[in-house]
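Project standup — Tuesday

K.O.: blocked on the structure for the chain from last sprint. Re-posting the sequence here as requested.
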Amino acid sequence: MSDLTFFEVQYRRQQQEAKAKNEHGSKQKGINLNADVFVDIAFPAARGDGTRQRFNLPLTIYGPGARREPQVVTRKVISAAGGAKNWRLNGELIPDPDFDPGRYSGLTPGDLAVFGLEGDPTPTAIYIVLISWSEADDQTLYEALGNMLGNRSMVMLASAQMEAVVDLAASDHPIRELFDAELDLSLEEAALGSPEAEERLRRRASPRRTTTEAMRAARLEAEATGLRGEALLNEWLRSQQTTAVISDFKWISEETPLNPWDFEVTEPDGTLSRIELKTTKGSFGTPFHLSQSEVAYAADATAPKTDLYRVYEISEGVGKLAISEDIREFAREILKSVAGLGTGIVPESYLVDVSRLGNWRHVGEISAHDDPDDTQTSP
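H.V.: unblocked you, prediction finished:
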Protein backbone atom coordinates (compact mmCIF):
# COMPACT_ATOMS: atom_id res chain seq x y z
CA MET A 1 0.00 0.00 0.00
CA SER A 2 1.80 3.14 -1.25
CA ASP A 3 -1.06 5.56 -0.55
CA LEU A 4 -0.60 5.81 3.22
CA THR A 5 -1.07 9.58 3.18
CA PHE A 6 -4.79 8.92 2.80
CA PHE A 7 -4.68 8.56 6.59
CA GLU A 8 -4.16 11.71 8.60
CA VAL A 9 -1.59 10.31 11.03
CA GLN A 10 0.52 9.06 8.13
CA TYR A 11 0.17 12.32 6.20
CA ARG A 12 1.26 14.43 9.20
CA ARG A 13 4.17 12.12 9.92
CA GLN A 14 5.33 12.24 6.31
CA GLN A 15 5.12 16.03 6.26
CA GLN A 16 7.19 16.28 9.44
CA GLU A 17 9.84 13.91 8.09
CA ALA A 18 10.05 15.86 4.83
CA LYS A 19 10.31 19.16 6.68
CA ALA A 20 13.18 17.81 8.80
CA LYS A 21 15.03 17.05 5.56
CA ASN A 22 14.19 20.42 3.99
CA GLU A 23 12.05 18.63 1.43
CA HIS A 24 8.50 19.08 0.21
CA GLY A 25 6.28 16.26 1.38
CA SER A 26 3.68 14.53 -0.77
CA LYS A 27 0.38 16.35 -1.12
CA GLN A 28 -1.47 13.15 -2.06
CA LYS A 29 -4.57 12.61 0.06
CA GLY A 30 -6.19 9.74 -1.76
CA ILE A 31 -5.84 6.12 -2.87
CA ASN A 32 -5.18 5.31 -6.52
CA LEU A 33 -7.72 2.95 -8.11
CA ASN A 34 -6.30 1.37 -11.24
CA ALA A 35 -8.71 1.96 -14.11
CA ASP A 36 -7.93 -1.43 -15.68
CA VAL A 37 -9.41 -3.07 -12.58
CA PHE A 38 -11.78 -0.61 -10.94
CA VAL A 39 -13.39 0.56 -14.19
CA ASP A 40 -12.64 -1.95 -16.94
CA ILE A 41 -13.63 -4.97 -14.80
CA ALA A 42 -15.77 -3.72 -11.92
CA PHE A 43 -17.62 -0.65 -13.25
CA PRO A 44 -17.32 -0.21 -17.05
CA ALA A 45 -20.37 2.08 -17.11
CA ALA A 46 -18.67 4.48 -14.70
CA ARG A 47 -16.68 6.02 -17.54
CA GLY A 48 -19.82 7.74 -18.78
CA ASP A 49 -19.18 10.07 -21.69
CA GLY A 50 -15.47 10.39 -20.96
CA THR A 51 -15.74 13.58 -18.93
CA ARG A 52 -14.57 13.83 -15.35
CA GLN A 53 -16.66 11.53 -13.14
CA ARG A 54 -17.40 11.84 -9.42
CA PHE A 55 -19.23 9.41 -7.13
CA ASN A 56 -19.91 10.31 -3.51
CA LEU A 57 -20.28 7.14 -1.47
CA PRO A 58 -19.93 5.62 2.01
CA LEU A 59 -16.50 4.20 2.80
CA THR A 60 -16.27 1.55 5.53
CA ILE A 61 -12.83 0.65 6.90
CA TYR A 62 -11.88 -2.44 8.93
CA GLY A 63 -8.51 -3.45 10.33
CA PRO A 64 -5.62 -3.54 10.40
CA GLY A 65 -5.36 -6.74 12.42
CA ALA A 66 -8.41 -7.98 14.31
CA ARG A 67 -10.09 -4.55 14.52
CA ARG A 68 -13.64 -5.46 13.54
CA GLU A 69 -15.43 -2.27 14.55
CA PRO A 70 -15.72 -0.34 11.31
CA GLN A 71 -15.02 3.32 10.72
CA VAL A 72 -17.60 4.73 8.33
CA VAL A 73 -17.02 8.00 6.48
CA THR A 74 -18.22 9.58 3.23
CA ARG A 75 -15.66 10.07 0.49
CA LYS A 76 -15.68 10.33 -3.29
CA VAL A 77 -14.34 8.40 -6.24
CA ILE A 78 -13.13 10.72 -8.99
CA SER A 79 -11.56 10.29 -12.40
CA ALA A 80 -9.55 12.48 -14.66
CA ALA A 81 -11.12 13.07 -18.05
CA GLY A 82 -10.17 11.22 -21.19
CA GLY A 83 -9.62 7.63 -20.07
CA ALA A 84 -7.15 8.36 -17.30
CA LYS A 85 -4.97 5.49 -16.12
CA ASN A 86 -6.02 5.78 -12.48
CA TRP A 87 -9.10 6.90 -10.66
CA ARG A 88 -8.85 8.06 -7.07
CA LEU A 89 -10.61 7.48 -3.78
CA ASN A 90 -10.33 11.01 -2.52
CA GLY A 91 -11.60 13.63 -0.12
CA GLU A 92 -10.56 14.65 3.35
CA LEU A 93 -7.82 12.82 5.22
CA ILE A 94 -9.02 9.83 7.24
CA PRO A 95 -8.44 10.50 10.96
CA ASP A 96 -8.06 7.78 13.55
CA PRO A 97 -11.54 6.99 14.86
CA ASP A 98 -12.42 8.39 18.28
CA PHE A 99 -13.11 4.87 19.53
CA ASP A 100 -9.65 3.61 18.44
CA PRO A 101 -6.87 6.25 18.69
CA GLY A 102 -3.69 5.23 16.87
CA ARG A 103 -5.51 2.79 14.63
CA TYR A 104 -3.61 3.72 11.48
CA SER A 105 -0.29 4.78 12.98
CA GLY A 106 1.32 1.36 12.56
CA LEU A 107 0.70 1.06 8.83
CA THR A 108 3.83 0.94 6.68
CA PRO A 109 4.61 0.97 2.94
CA GLY A 110 3.85 -2.43 1.46
CA ASP A 111 0.82 -3.08 3.64
CA LEU A 112 -2.28 -4.16 1.73
CA ALA A 113 -5.87 -2.97 1.33
CA VAL A 114 -8.59 -5.42 0.26
CA PHE A 115 -11.52 -3.64 -1.37
CA GLY A 116 -15.13 -4.78 -1.39
CA LEU A 117 -17.14 -2.95 -4.04
CA GLU A 118 -20.90 -2.47 -4.29
CA GLY A 119 -23.06 -0.95 -6.99
CA ASP A 120 -24.39 -1.64 -10.46
CA PRO A 121 -23.68 -0.16 -12.92
CA THR A 122 -21.70 2.47 -10.96
CA PRO A 123 -20.09 2.34 -7.48
CA THR A 124 -22.39 3.00 -4.53
CA ALA A 125 -20.28 1.82 -1.58
CA ILE A 126 -16.71 0.74 -0.83
CA TYR A 127 -15.43 -1.46 1.97
CA ILE A 128 -11.73 -1.69 2.84
CA VAL A 129 -9.97 -4.22 5.05
CA LEU A 130 -6.43 -3.15 5.90
CA ILE A 131 -3.90 -6.01 6.09
CA SER A 132 -0.59 -5.16 7.78
CA TRP A 133 2.50 -7.36 7.92
CA SER A 134 3.20 -6.03 11.43
CA GLU A 135 -0.11 -7.36 12.81
CA ALA A 136 0.02 -10.96 14.06
CA ASP A 137 -3.61 -11.52 13.04
CA ASP A 138 -2.80 -10.46 9.46
CA GLN A 139 0.45 -12.28 8.73
CA THR A 140 -0.90 -15.42 7.01
CA LEU A 141 -3.34 -13.30 5.00
CA TYR A 142 -0.60 -10.83 4.10
CA GLU A 143 1.56 -13.61 2.68
CA ALA A 144 -1.28 -15.21 0.71
CA LEU A 145 -2.54 -11.92 -0.71
CA GLY A 146 0.98 -10.76 -1.51
CA ASN A 147 1.53 -13.88 -3.60
CA MET A 148 -1.70 -13.22 -5.51
CA LEU A 149 -0.81 -9.56 -6.06
CA GLY A 150 2.73 -10.22 -7.28
CA ASN A 151 4.35 -7.11 -8.71
CA ARG A 152 1.02 -5.50 -9.61
CA SER A 153 -0.51 -2.63 -7.69
CA MET A 154 -4.15 -3.77 -7.93
CA VAL A 155 -5.84 -7.00 -9.02
CA MET A 156 -9.36 -8.43 -9.07
CA LEU A 157 -9.64 -11.65 -7.08
CA ALA A 158 -12.06 -14.40 -8.09
CA SER A 159 -14.41 -15.91 -5.51
CA ALA A 160 -12.30 -19.06 -5.27
CA GLN A 161 -9.21 -16.98 -4.50
CA MET A 162 -11.02 -15.01 -1.81
CA GLU A 163 -12.37 -18.22 -0.32
CA ALA A 164 -8.83 -19.61 -0.10
CA VAL A 165 -7.67 -16.43 1.67
CA VAL A 166 -10.60 -16.33 4.09
CA ASP A 167 -10.00 -19.97 5.03
CA LEU A 168 -6.67 -18.81 6.50
CA ALA A 169 -8.31 -16.18 8.70
CA ALA A 170 -9.59 -16.51 12.23
CA SER A 171 -13.37 -16.80 12.55
CA ASP A 172 -13.58 -13.23 13.88
CA HIS A 173 -11.15 -11.59 11.45
CA PRO A 174 -12.68 -8.56 9.66
CA ILE A 175 -11.79 -9.99 6.22
CA ARG A 176 -14.92 -12.09 6.72
CA GLU A 177 -16.97 -8.91 6.48
CA LEU A 178 -16.03 -8.82 2.79
CA PHE A 179 -16.26 -12.50 1.98
CA ASP A 180 -17.47 -15.51 3.96
CA ALA A 181 -19.49 -18.11 2.08
CA GLU A 182 -21.00 -19.52 5.27
CA LEU A 183 -22.11 -16.11 6.56
CA ASP A 184 -23.43 -15.10 3.14
CA LEU A 185 -25.52 -18.28 3.01
CA SER A 186 -26.77 -17.54 6.53
CA LEU A 187 -27.77 -14.09 5.35
CA GLU A 188 -29.84 -15.55 2.49
CA GLU A 189 -31.48 -18.02 4.86
CA ALA A 190 -32.17 -15.26 7.39
CA ALA A 191 -33.73 -13.13 4.66
CA LEU A 192 -36.13 -16.01 4.01
CA GLY A 193 -37.04 -16.23 7.70
CA SER A 194 -34.74 -18.86 9.19
CA PRO A 195 -34.42 -18.23 12.95
CA GLU A 196 -31.28 -20.41 13.10
CA ALA A 197 -29.61 -18.31 10.41
CA GLU A 198 -30.61 -15.10 12.18
CA GLU A 199 -29.01 -16.39 15.36
CA ARG A 200 -25.79 -17.30 13.50
CA LEU A 201 -25.56 -13.76 12.15
CA ARG A 202 -26.14 -12.26 15.58
CA ARG A 203 -23.59 -14.59 17.16
CA ARG A 204 -20.92 -13.71 14.58
CA ALA A 205 -21.75 -9.99 14.85
CA SER A 206 -21.40 -9.12 11.18
CA PRO A 207 -22.38 -5.43 10.86
CA ARG A 208 -22.41 -5.41 7.04
CA ARG A 209 -24.82 -8.34 6.90
CA THR A 210 -27.37 -7.00 9.39
CA THR A 211 -28.41 -3.82 7.61
CA THR A 212 -31.77 -3.29 5.94
CA GLU A 213 -30.06 -2.99 2.57
CA ALA A 214 -28.16 -6.24 3.11
CA MET A 215 -31.37 -8.08 3.92
CA ARG A 216 -33.08 -6.64 0.86
CA ALA A 217 -30.19 -7.69 -1.37
CA ALA A 218 -30.13 -11.15 0.21
CA ARG A 219 -33.81 -11.69 -0.59
CA LEU A 220 -33.14 -10.82 -4.21
CA GLU A 221 -30.14 -13.15 -4.30
CA ALA A 222 -32.18 -15.96 -2.74
CA GLU A 223 -34.82 -15.49 -5.45
CA ALA A 224 -32.09 -15.54 -8.10
CA THR A 225 -30.67 -18.76 -6.63
CA GLY A 226 -34.11 -20.32 -6.86
CA LEU A 227 -34.46 -19.32 -10.49
CA ARG A 228 -31.01 -20.71 -11.30
CA GLY A 229 -32.06 -23.97 -9.69
CA GLU A 230 -35.22 -24.12 -11.80
CA ALA A 231 -33.25 -23.48 -14.98
CA LEU A 232 -30.77 -26.21 -14.04
CA LEU A 233 -33.52 -28.71 -13.27
CA ASN A 234 -35.27 -27.81 -16.53
CA GLU A 235 -32.13 -28.86 -18.43
CA TRP A 236 -31.88 -32.10 -16.46
CA LEU A 237 -35.53 -32.97 -17.07
CA ARG A 238 -34.98 -32.32 -20.76
CA SER A 239 -32.18 -34.90 -20.71
CA GLN A 240 -34.49 -37.35 -18.92
CA GLN A 241 -37.09 -36.83 -21.64
CA THR A 242 -34.47 -37.32 -24.36
CA THR A 243 -33.55 -40.71 -22.90
CA ALA A 244 -37.22 -41.69 -22.41
CA VAL A 245 -36.93 -41.83 -18.62
CA ILE A 246 -39.94 -39.50 -18.64
CA SER A 247 -42.45 -38.91 -21.40
CA ASP A 248 -42.94 -35.14 -21.02
CA PHE A 249 -42.60 -32.25 -18.57
CA LYS A 250 -43.68 -28.64 -18.14
CA TRP A 251 -41.95 -25.80 -16.31
CA ILE A 252 -45.07 -24.44 -14.61
CA SER A 253 -43.56 -21.73 -12.42
CA GLU A 254 -41.81 -20.09 -15.39
CA GLU A 255 -45.21 -18.97 -16.65
CA THR A 256 -47.04 -18.82 -13.31
CA PRO A 257 -44.60 -17.83 -10.52
CA LEU A 258 -47.26 -18.03 -7.79
CA ASN A 259 -48.12 -21.63 -8.61
CA PRO A 260 -47.57 -23.87 -5.54
CA TRP A 261 -45.46 -26.38 -7.50
CA ASP A 262 -42.73 -25.79 -10.06
CA PHE A 263 -42.84 -28.58 -12.65
CA GLU A 264 -45.24 -31.26 -13.91
CA VAL A 265 -43.88 -34.54 -15.21
CA THR A 266 -45.60 -37.19 -17.31
CA GLU A 267 -44.22 -40.71 -16.79
CA PRO A 268 -43.97 -43.20 -19.69
CA ASP A 269 -47.15 -44.91 -18.45
CA GLY A 270 -49.02 -41.59 -18.55
CA THR A 271 -48.95 -40.93 -14.79
CA LEU A 272 -48.76 -37.24 -13.90
CA SER A 273 -46.70 -36.00 -10.97
CA ARG A 274 -45.67 -32.61 -9.62
CA ILE A 275 -42.26 -31.34 -8.59
CA GLU A 276 -41.63 -28.86 -5.81
CA LEU A 277 -38.03 -27.64 -6.12
CA LYS A 278 -35.88 -26.27 -3.29
CA THR A 279 -32.48 -24.85 -4.22
CA THR A 280 -29.56 -23.77 -2.07
CA LYS A 281 -25.92 -22.79 -2.46
CA GLY A 282 -25.32 -24.69 0.76
CA SER A 283 -25.00 -28.37 1.54
CA PHE A 284 -27.70 -31.00 1.29
CA GLY A 285 -28.41 -30.60 5.00
CA THR A 286 -29.39 -26.94 4.73
CA PRO A 287 -33.02 -26.58 5.92
CA PHE A 288 -35.58 -25.39 3.37
CA HIS A 289 -38.92 -23.57 3.48
CA LEU A 290 -42.29 -24.95 2.46
CA SER A 291 -45.11 -22.43 2.15
CA GLN A 292 -48.58 -23.15 3.54
CA SER A 293 -49.88 -23.28 -0.01
CA GLU A 294 -47.20 -25.77 -1.10
CA VAL A 295 -48.00 -28.00 1.86
CA ALA A 296 -51.77 -27.83 1.27
CA TYR A 297 -51.55 -28.78 -2.40
CA ALA A 298 -49.02 -31.56 -1.69
CA ALA A 299 -51.41 -33.02 0.90
CA ASP A 300 -54.41 -33.08 -1.46
CA ALA A 301 -55.51 -36.71 -1.86
CA THR A 302 -57.29 -35.95 -5.15
CA ALA A 303 -54.25 -34.35 -6.79
CA PRO A 304 -51.22 -35.96 -8.48
CA LYS A 305 -48.39 -36.81 -6.09
CA THR A 306 -45.78 -34.15 -5.33
CA ASP A 307 -42.09 -35.08 -5.36
CA LEU A 308 -39.66 -32.78 -3.60
CA TYR A 309 -36.47 -32.11 -5.57
CA ARG A 310 -33.47 -30.67 -3.76
CA VAL A 311 -30.75 -28.91 -5.79
CA TYR A 312 -27.83 -28.07 -3.51
CA GLU A 313 -24.27 -26.73 -3.77
CA ILE A 314 -25.37 -24.88 -6.89
CA SER A 315 -22.83 -22.68 -8.66
CA GLU A 316 -22.19 -21.58 -12.23
CA GLY A 317 -24.61 -23.99 -13.94
CA VAL A 318 -23.70 -26.99 -11.79
CA GLY A 319 -25.40 -28.49 -8.75
CA LYS A 320 -26.24 -31.72 -6.97
CA LEU A 321 -29.69 -33.26 -7.01
CA ALA A 322 -31.59 -35.34 -4.46
CA ILE A 323 -35.23 -36.45 -4.71
CA SER A 324 -37.82 -37.31 -2.05
CA GLU A 325 -40.74 -38.94 -3.80
CA ASP A 326 -44.39 -38.39 -2.85
CA ILE A 327 -44.42 -36.06 0.14
CA ARG A 328 -48.21 -36.35 0.53
CA GLU A 329 -48.11 -38.05 3.96
CA PHE A 330 -45.47 -35.64 5.24
CA ALA A 331 -47.61 -32.68 4.14
CA ARG A 332 -50.66 -34.17 5.84
CA GLU A 333 -48.70 -34.54 9.08
CA ILE A 334 -47.82 -30.85 8.96
CA LEU A 335 -51.44 -29.81 8.42
CA LYS A 336 -52.61 -32.10 11.21
CA SER A 337 -50.05 -30.69 13.64
CA VAL A 338 -51.19 -27.09 13.12
CA ALA A 339 -54.92 -27.80 12.99
CA GLY A 340 -55.11 -27.26 16.74
CA LEU A 341 -54.14 -23.61 16.38
CA GLY A 342 -57.77 -22.83 15.69
CA THR A 343 -59.38 -20.44 13.27
CA GLY A 344 -57.73 -17.15 12.47
CA ILE A 345 -54.16 -18.48 12.75
CA VAL A 346 -52.54 -19.73 9.55
CA PRO A 347 -48.79 -20.35 9.38
CA GLU A 348 -47.20 -18.66 6.40
CA SER A 349 -44.43 -21.23 5.92
CA TYR A 350 -42.47 -24.02 7.57
CA LEU A 351 -38.73 -24.43 7.96
CA VAL A 352 -38.00 -28.10 7.28
CA ASP A 353 -34.97 -30.17 8.22
CA VAL A 354 -34.07 -32.57 5.41
CA SER A 355 -33.93 -35.45 7.89
CA ARG A 356 -37.72 -35.25 8.27
CA LEU A 357 -37.99 -36.71 4.79
CA GLY A 358 -36.23 -40.03 5.08
CA ASN A 359 -36.59 -41.43 1.57
CA TRP A 360 -34.04 -39.29 -0.29
CA ARG A 361 -32.58 -40.62 -3.52
CA HIS A 362 -29.30 -38.88 -4.36
CA VAL A 363 -28.99 -38.45 -8.10
CA GLY A 364 -25.57 -36.81 -7.99
CA GLU A 365 -24.15 -33.86 -9.89
CA ILE A 366 -26.15 -32.32 -12.71
CA SER A 367 -25.18 -29.50 -15.04
CA ALA A 368 -26.84 -27.24 -17.56
CA HIS A 369 -25.60 -29.39 -20.42
CA ASP A 370 -25.46 -32.78 -18.75
CA ASP A 371 -24.86 -35.97 -20.67
CA PRO A 372 -27.46 -38.33 -19.16
CA ASP A 373 -24.91 -41.18 -19.15
CA ASP A 374 -22.61 -39.13 -16.89
CA THR A 375 -25.16 -38.70 -14.07
CA GLN A 376 -24.58 -41.22 -11.31
CA THR A 377 -27.18 -42.24 -8.79
CA SER A 378 -26.31 -43.22 -5.23
CA PRO A 379 -28.67 -44.88 -2.79
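K.O.: great, moving the ticket to review. The chain has ten helices and 14 strands. The mean pLDDT is 90.
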